[in-house]
Amino acid sequence: MEINMDLKGKTALVTGSNSGIGLGVARELAKAGINVVLNSFTDSQEDHELAHSIATEFGVEARYISADMSKADECRDLITRAGVCDILVNNAGIQYVAGIDEFPVDKWDAIIAINMSSAFHTTAAALPMMRKAGWGRVINIASAHGLTASPYKSAYVAAKHGVVGLTKVTALETAREAITANAICPGYVLTPLVEAQIPDTMKKYDMDRETVIREVLLERQPSKEFATVEQLGGTCLFLASDAAAQITGTTLSVDGGWTAL
C-alpha cells in the first residue's frame, strides 16, 4: 500500500500559536499546504496580521481566533468557531516555579487549566468533527516533564503527566476509527522566551553564552543542543501523515536524550 504524505487541504488548529513552539508548528504545517487556525488570548492586530502573513507566504487559508485557554467554555467555543478541525495541536501552556509548600494556589489553578484541562475541552469538542469527517489527528505538546520530573515545577509536571494520560485515553476511545492521538515530549526548545533568558543567566553565573547553554540550560539534555520549533513542526507533520496511522496513544520524545537517562 502506498503511503500518502500529502495533507494539503486539511485544517489544523494550534492553540497558543502566536509565538514560540505553537507558531513554529503552525508555520511548518502551513508550509506543507495545511490550512491553519492560530490562537492566543490577546486578540491584537498583530495576531490577525500574523495569520495573514502565513496565508500569503504559504498560499493556504490562515485565521486567528482569540480564546482564553484557562476557560472551559472558550476552549470548546474555539473549536466551534473554527468550523473544521482535522488536526488539533494542543500546545498552549504557561510555567511557574516554586516549592510545593510555597506554590501560589492561583498559579497552580492556572497551569492546570491552561496546560492540561484546555486539551480535554478542545479534544472533547473536536472529536465529533473528526468522526463526522472520518479522519482526525490529536497531537498534544506535552514535555519531557510529562515523563520525568524536576523540583519546584509541581504544577507543570502534574499537568504534563496529565496530558500524557489524556492522550492515551483519547487513543483508546478512537482506536477503531481513523483518528489517532499522540503526545510530543520536547526537552528544551530554543524559542524567543528561552533566548531572552540567556543574557540574565550569563550574568548570574558569570559565564559566556555557550557555557550557559551547555552547562545550565541544557544540563539535563545529553545532546547539549536545543530542539527547534521546526523539528517539532516536522514531528507533528509525521504524526498527521498516513505513515503514522498506526501510531496512537504514545509519546515521541524530542529531547536530545533527556528521558533516556
Automatic annotation (TrEMBL):
InterPro entries documented for this protein: 3-OHbutyrate_DH, NAD(P)-bd_dom_sf, Sc_DH/Rdtase_CS, SDR, SDR_fam
Enzyme class: oxidoreductase
EC number of the protein: 1.1.1.30
The keyword Calcium is assigned to this record: no
SUPFAM superfamilies assigned: NAD(P)-binding Rossmann-fold domains
Gene Ontology molecular functions: 3-hydroxybutyrate dehydrogenase activity
Presence of the UniProt keyword Oxidoreductase in the record: yes
GO biological process terms, semicolon-separated: monocarboxylic acid metabolic process
UniProt entry keywords in alphabetical sequence: Oxidoreductase
PANTHER family registered for this protein in UniProt: 3-OXOACYL-(ACYL-CARRIER-PROTEIN) REDUCTASE, 3-OXOACYL-[ACYL-CARRIER-PROTEIN] REDUCTASE FABG
Family: Belongs to the short-chain dehydrogenases/reductases (SDR) family.
Protein name: D-beta-hydroxybutyrate dehydrogenase
